[in-house]
Amino acid sequence: MSALPTLFVSHGSPLLAVDPGRTGPLLTALGRAVPRPREILVISPHWSTPTPRVGNLAQQRTIHDFGGFPRELYALEYPAAGAPALAERTVKMLRDAGLPATTDDQWGLDHGAWVPLRYLYPDADVPVTQLSLQRHARPETQYRLGQRLAPLAQEGTLIIASGSFTHNLHEVFRAPSEDLAEAPYLAEFVAWFTEHLAAMDLDALFDYRARAPYAERAHPTDEHLLPLYIALGAADNAARQTHFDTGATYGALRMDAFAFGNAAPSLADVTALAQ
Description:
The protein is α/β, with parallel strands linked by helices. The protein has a single domain (6-272), classed as 3-Layer(aba) Sandwich (Protocatechuate 4,5-dioxygenase, Chain B), CATH 3.40.830.10. It has helices at residues 23-33, 71-74, 84-96, 111-120, 139-154, 169-174, 185-198, 202-206, 208-211, 215-218, 226-234, 267-274, and strands spanning 6-10, 39-48, 53-55, 102-104, 128-133, 157-163, 241-244, 248-249, 253-254, 257-260. The strands form three sheets. A six-stranded mixed β-sheet has the order 5-2-6-1-10-7, with helices on both faces. A two-stranded parallel sheet has the order 3-4. Helix 1 (23-33) crosses helix 4, helix 1 crosses helix 12 and helix 5 (139-154) crosses helix 11 (226-234). It starts with 5 loop residues before the first strand and ends with a helix. Keywords: Dioxygenase, Metal-binding, Oxidoreductase, Zinc.
């Protein structure tokens, strides 16, 4: 079996679940363009633990881990089956690499997981489990973790890293309007990051906070970008990349997505499916 691609998707605000904008159709098309997975392992910045934990529920539960949003959001469910066998396999793989990983029978799917999954696999018909993020670990450490997960993609597991390509909530809260024009500084950050990503300049990418223009403004804290490094490390050929640019929401949240690996669908194929 050829390895599945790995994905990084931006989930933005929880309101994406009811207001798809440009991102929802793109994610739906991306889900259709990727070879159908046997199961899904998703990483979200909204479940952070000191050491890796993998959910092992037989039936997923939808976590509404946000407040102050319209009531309709709290009624949404993503009733996918869990993937306990995948959880056990992932834990063994990480333990074999020397990491103190454990399974977890409490966590379900937080909004960083279920909101994009509602578009990628709207029928909730692919078993899924979630891997926690170690938010204080450096980008290089996240990349190495991804490398340890790479065999899963060879076995038919789709690794989805969910976050946000930029994520300055201070600016969003100052002027919370989805119609805000994109902040001008984002273009410089995105251009730098995508250029070094395409060149696989890992030294620069690992040190992006010191080298990228406006890095600390784009990511006052970097937990929403760290999952990208996991997807990059888990790809069978990270130099083979497709970048999906869906702009920004609320002026400061870039909603870009990436597919990495030899089986990454092309921009033309996904764009055609999104129309």
